[in-house]
Amino acid sequence: MTTVDEVAHTAWRYRWVVLGVATFTQAAAGFFVQGIGAMGIHLQRDLQLSTVQVGLLVSAAQLVPLVGLLVAGELLDRCDERWVVGAGAGVVSAGLLAGSAAPGYASLLLVLLLVGAGYSTVQPGGSKSVASWFGASQRGFAMGIRQAGLPLGAALASAALPFVAEAYGWRATLVAGGLVALLGSCVFLGFYRRPPVTAAPRGGGPRASLGTQLGARLRMLREPSMVRIMLTGTSLISVQYGVGILTVLHLHETASFGAGPAALVLVAVQGAGVVGRIALAAWSDRGTHGRYGSLVLCMAAVLMGMAVLMTPLGRAPAIASCTLVWLGFFGFGWYGPWVTYVSESAPPDRTGFALGLAMSVNQVAIVAMPPVLGLLKDLSGSFVPVWGVLSAMTAVALAVSARVRPGNRPRSCGRHGVCGPP
């Protein structure tokens, strides 16, 4: 006869399935957009684009999430993550498949706006899904695995899309991206379930007035933990997207790499990011300095890597490649402990909104930095000012946020509203 404890234990074992599903959907939904950097040479050749125009493609996909992440956060606090995330990944798929008929650059920009609207739900939704299934002792490790989905999808896209573009043209890459996103949507809809024990039912109890709810959310912006979150997030996300978009072009123009070898280095950079997101998040579970200690390490490591790229050593093929892989580990790996820090700093009933708010602030940098960095490169004819700007941003964020000293207060299982095996 099956006991209640056995049933509960079996249910909580399902959290690993949830983790796998959330990770896969993250990788699938971001597959095409994260592969744009690897196709930079092909897009410049086929569409006669400048570096700033390549950067604008990424910005177009990230523009709608400026508002969309906040909307998604509210939806996630009110609705089942299964439908919010599944529908969003479906919109990504529909946009990319429709975009395969785009006649040129302007149409492609419009398509990527729609893709960004769908993707707005996937990032905070998957993060909240994982946070709700895992206790504090494993949450960082689990979140690191889940957040590794983005560089994992980027690595696979960097390996596959340039060859698809070479063989069948750039439109075929949108078809490939659309089919991958559709698979991610179907997997999440089919396999995701909410945890067996939850807090009060959604929508239960008296609701505060709209003004009260808005005031509570705006007050979150002034909390020391959110100041630290936003400073570290905007600087490191700028590094991540700068390295992701410009690695291939830097190696091609500065270190005389061909398009194929440069794309393979980008695959290695993204692969290092996968390892970094898992390893750094797991370390943040057990490290004496907590989540923020991992972020300080990442910012320091980024400054070291950028310093190398700005010297003549950055033109040597082997050193440039190794340095970019180093930046992949730390400049992409920071996201695992960062998003865990966000989820643990938020009030229990506003986790979705806090994730959406923090990620929407990051979106400002994601939208602005690719074209700004591309324009800086086009005007100066050199990558040194680009790496210099990213270094300055990171140094300022490290100095200012280090003066803010909130306690890193991870919520226990009970405070989060769910409880499962540690």
What does this structure look like?
The protein is an all-alpha fold and 422 residues long. The longest helix is centred in the middle third of the chain and has 31 residues, at 224-254. The chain contains 21 helices and no strands. It has one domain (13-194, 220-407): Growth Hormone, Chain: A, CATH 1.20.1250. 79% of the residues lie in helices and 0% in strands. Its main location: membrane. Residues 18-409 form the Major facilitator superfamily (MFS) profile domain. Keywords: Membrane, Transmembrane, Transmembrane helix.
What CATH architecture do you see?
Answer: Up-down Bundle
- The topology string of helices and strands comes to HHHHHHHHHHHHHHHHHHHHH
Global geometry: globular
Helix tally? 21
Question: What is the number of strand segments?
Answer: 0
Measured as a percent range, the helix fraction is over 70%
Give me the Rg, rounded.
Answer: 21 Å
Which fold name fills CATH's third level, the topology? Growth Hormone, Chain: A
Q: Summarize the biggest pleated sheet.
A: none
How many distinct folded domains? 1
Top-tier CATH class: Mainly Alpha
Tell me the structural class.
mainly alpha
* Beta-strand content estimate: under 5%
Distance between the termini: 25 Å
- State mean pLDDT (0 to 100 scale): 80
Query: Which blocks of ≥5 consecutive residues have pLDDT under 50?
Result: 198-206, 407-422
